[in-house]
Amino acid sequence: MACTKEKEFQILEDMKEYYGKTIQNKDELMINNSTSTCDAPPCKLPRHIADALELIHPDVKAKSYGCGMTVPELLEGTHVLDLGSGAGHDCFALAKLVGERGHVTGVDMTEEQLEFARRYIDYHRETFGYSKPNTDFVMAYIEKLGDAGLKDDTFDVIISNCVVNLSPDKRAVLKEAHRVLKPGGEMYFSDMYADQVVPDHIKQHKVLWGEGFAGALWWKDLVRITREVGFSTPRLVKASNINIKKSIQDLTGNIKYVAATYRLFKVPQNGNNMPADVVYNGSVTGHDEVIALDKHNTFKVGSVAEVDPELSAIIQQSRFASAFTVVTSKSPDGEKTIPTNPFSGTRAA
Fold it and tell me: In 47-184, where does DSSP find H-type helix?
């Protein structure tokens, strides 16, 4: 059942209070903080990402409430938007990774979070050795990015870290993300998903909204909505089960939840794409020998690999075009299903 406008407004107001006033650091969240979206322990990050995370101010780290690692590849010089940027943790890490020529914009609806993040802009500029800041923070609902003056076809990459589940209108969020992305742009985001439609009685629980359980999408609805607003089929990057505390499980019953990272691309969905053989050239920072574009597509330098028609279009029309050579395009050999289920083969957190 869709929320009324009055109910949507109340949910957003409740979330502003929850993350602006009620929760002051990540240890206060009820969700089990051992949750990770890395596929296999230990979670080994590329050196340049680990180095960037090490430079984040400890106070900002303490207020990071995400459920995944929202750092895609090939960020140098890009313009990035963080939906629900909170205290700025991911924005500041990305500010290091995009470099001084790139820029990161964080958008949040909570004034307390924005004020906190803005206090650390100069700290990170000085830490990174930049001559001027490459980060800014603006106030808006992620369902209404135009209210912050964010224009069509502006950003190369959008990230979001366990925030979309807090929105009562996921379609509006994804539609706005698609609008502000440049052609060929990507939305790379981690979020919570349910193995079924979350029933209405759970959606009435304020704390379960704040913790993400009430607003978690059924994963099949994500696939449907993303296609309807114009994105490519979601590419599943990684997923892990969420360990739920008994106090929450008593309320959510038999619903299973995962934390999953997907990537969506704004490429034409014209049905004329063809499968192709591609070769990765090793040019992406931190991925000198191998790169995984999703959970099911890993590419070794110099090796020919066949990709489905949609991934072929993504590689050729996105920022990844310079990292691959298309060897041959093939005639379609039957339609192949793109795996999107985050519960399939998911490891325990």
Answer: 47-54, 58-61, 89-98, 111-118, 121-128, 170-180
Alpha carbon distance 138, 249 (integer Å): 36
Placement of tokens 């808006």 in the chain: 140
The model's pTM is 0.88
Residue 115's contacts (CB-CB under 8 Å, 6 or more residues apart) are: none
User: What would the pLDDT profile of 203-241 be if each residue is shown by its tens digit?
Assistant: 988 888 888 899 999 999 999 999 999 999 999 999 999
Write out 264-301 in H/E/C secondary structure.
EECCCCCCCCCCEEEEECCCCCCCCCEEEEECCEEEEE
What number of residues does the chain have?
349
Tokens of 282: 């090793």
3-state secondary structure of 59: helix
CA 265, 271, 272, 273: dihedral to nearest 10 degrees? 40
- pLDDT digit string (tens) for 183-204? 999 999 999 999 999 999 999 8
Tell me the Ramachandran region of residue 212: left when phi exceeds 0, alpha when psi lies from -120 to 50, beta otherwise: left
Report pLDDT for 56. Answer: 96
Q: What is the DSSP letter of 88?
A: S
Amino acid at 170: K
Distances in Å between the Cα of 180 and the Cα atoms of 16, 29, 81, 174, 311 are 24, 31, 9, 10, 22
Residues facing 136 on adjacent strands: 105
The DSSP output letter for 156 is E
